[in-house]
Amino acid sequence: MANGTVVAAAQPHEEDFYHYKGKHKGILSWLLTTDHKRIGLMYLAAMMVFFLVAMTLGILMRLEMLTPGPTIMKPQTYNSLFTLHGVIMIFLFIIPGIPAVFGNFFLPIQIGAKDVAFPRINLISWYLYIAGGAIAIFSLFTGGGAADTGWTFYVPYSIRSASNVSVAVFGAFVLGFASILTGLNFITTIHRLRAPGMTFFRMPLFVWSLYATAWIQILATPVIGITLLLIILERAFGIGVFDPALGGDPLLYQHLFWIYSHPAVYIMVLPAFGVVSEILPTFARKDIFGYKQIALSSLAIALIGYLVWGHHMFTSGMADTARVVFSVLTFLVAIPTGVKVFNWVATLYKGSIVFSVPLFYVMAFIVIFSVGGLTGLVQGALSTDIHLTDTYFIVAHFHYVMFGGMGTIFFASLHYWFPKMFGKMYNEKVAMIACITFIVGFNMLYFTMFILGYMGQPRRYYDYLPQLQGYHVFATVGSWIMVSGIVLMFGNLLRGLLKGGKAAMNPWSGTTLEWKVPSPPPVENFEEIPVCTGGPYVHGREIYIMHPGKEEAN
Amino acid sequence: MNQHLEAAANQPVIHRDDTASKMGMWLFLFTELLLFGGLFLLYAGYRFLYPEGFKAAAMELDVFIGTVNTIILITSSFSVAMSITALQKNQKKLAVYLLIFTLVCGLAFLVNKYFEWSHKIAHGIYPQGPAMENMSDGEIMYFGLYYVMTGLHGLHVLVGMIFIAIVLGMVVKDKITSTNYQKLENSGLYWHLVDIIWIFLYPLFYLIH
């Protein structure tokens, strides 16, 4: 559709992309940019705002749970809080997070391209993302007040609720478009713009994971689009497709919802897997173990992950055959995921490990994610799931995999690529303290929830039995520790951004292409399109020819 | 590669990749298919649940109008494909006429649809309408899906017509030529998608009794 990026005149020593003088000046040079790096940073800025808002909502919820009965808010407020916390975190932070920020910034550089295939569509995606977020926020203050259905918008309550469900749902619908267009852009970019010599099996694993993610974005997101649209139509016209009063079947809503929302779990976590596969070989100073297995397991996860949605509905009323099939398929997803974890650990084996902050986050991730993954199997098994459905156990599980999986790696990527994105360095000692504080608080908060769930604390409840108070207080204190870790981390990064020393071109001795260009990169990344002669994680030998023309002449 | 760099050194050049453009369009069409896929899934589920109600409700539809609309859409798909070939053979005038013909077909389809819908609405057959009170759950479901699916399809016909009108303008102004026709081809692909979805809607609503 849009293939009209203007290739500017190539100069011998280009300025970095912050100082590049384009058609527009000042704020417009950002708002009208088609540079994938600037768009990535604009996503980062917007996402940080949304993340901090949703984190505050989470803290308030935990504070409410400090004592049984009302503590600081009314039950209706609590219902709105967990809905918003979920909607903002999932649709505005976790799903777009790594692809939109780090994918946009590094995908073209890692494959040796000047930009994505459709730079203008890339900018449109950002505006759709902002519009969707704005509509979701707008829904809080208008109509019948903030939606109180939970982020799943289950019918029939979402049809009957007097709160502002239609507007919130429309926000999520618009965000879906942003996600689809980004996926479409990445697939085309990976197929069409790889540098000469870079075959599919020479691509960095981050690119592989973005490729698998992009396919899920394209093949799953439209299903939620139509489902959310039907909720709006149902509320506006009463067409009846989901309304039991008119013969509709609420179970069909749940099927359609999870046909998207389970694969969406892999949209969230696959890019994080990709980042882990980048960081480990860099700090182990060693080629990744089992490159092809990691690359293909991403595709296997994407494929099987598409077929397991029914495990969200084990207690909703499905046929026994369906439940057993979905349970078996759920267990199958654990296999490619296990392949990845074992390959990561094997990469560290006999490596010359350099303990830096990004690696620290990754180590924490491997442990936390394994806990999250294994407790997932507890719920994938039919008999135990019946007991644990809709308790804090599931809340703990998905925070371990989503926040512990995607969130931790988002922080790891920030620390890993910070010097490249901003050309500045942060204080590593403070970053390490922040990381440890975060991990301690994280486990206090969410591991306690496993125990609470096992003891029968239901999710989304405003109140609890007095004998559970000890656990709730422990978790709430954990949330304070975790948040101080996060605040310290952001403060440290912000200080690095403003006052940090200049970062070198390759501070971590990374081997992929982004470490072969200046920090921050010039406006079109490369003076010349490089040529690739081997796999991405080879230490001690130059794989990329950065000036193919000149070296030939010499 | 070197030629490209020399050209870049002298003046800004437009980066053009027709294959990427076509690939992007195909990926977008996948998403459209899955958008309707959700609705087809609902149709299948409810047809299985309410076979009698669906049968009774389908009798209400006018097979004649449905058939005429099918013929109109298939013809328009043919004309848009011919316009691409005409442009490739440098017959700009013919290409323009064929695109105008496609637009007229799209308009005729929507006019038919308008009369069909308003006829139903006049009889009180619409969600929450007076005629629906005496209907069974299956019939209500049938008409709910009928309005959503043909309505969403109608919206796609409208969007397709806008795309074709835009490329028509570009052909007239020589921005789309026999060597640079990817935008025309992409609009044509979109029009074929609109067509193929109708080819499934037509038997599901009008023909199966």
Kindly estimate the percentage of residues of chain A that lie in beta strands according to DSSP: under 5%
* Mean pLDDT level of chain B: 91
Could you please say which CATH topology of chain A applies here?
Answer: Cytochrome C Oxidase, Chain A
Our count of domains of chain A comes out at 1
Overall tally of domains of chain B: 1
Helix content of chain A: 55-70%
The average pLDDT score of chain A comes to 92
Distance between the termini of chain B: 62 Å
- Morphology call of chain A: globular
Beta-sheet strand percentage of chain B?
Answer: under 5%
DSSP summary, beta strand count of chain B: 1
SSE run of chain B: HEHHHHHH
CATH topology of chain B: Four Helix Bundle (Hemerythrin (Met), subunit A)
CATH class of chain A: Mainly Alpha
The residue fraction in helices of chain B comes out at: over 70%
Note the run of SSEs of chain A as H and E: EHHHHHHHHHHHHHHHHEEH
Query: Any idea what the CATH architecture of chain A is?
Result: Up-down Bundle
Cα-to-Cα separation, first versus last residue of chain A: 41 Å
Query: What's the name of the CATH homologous superfamily of chain A?
Result: Cytochrome c oxidase-like, subunit I domain
Major sheet characteristics of chain A: 2 strands, antiparallel
Biggest beta sheet summary of chain B: none
What would the keywords be for this entry?
heterodimer, A: 554 residues, mainly alpha, Cytochrome C Oxidase, Chain A, two-stranded antiparallel ribbon, 65% helix, globular, B: 209 residues, Four Helix Bundle (Hemerythrin (Met), subunit A), 80% helix, elongated, disordered N terminus
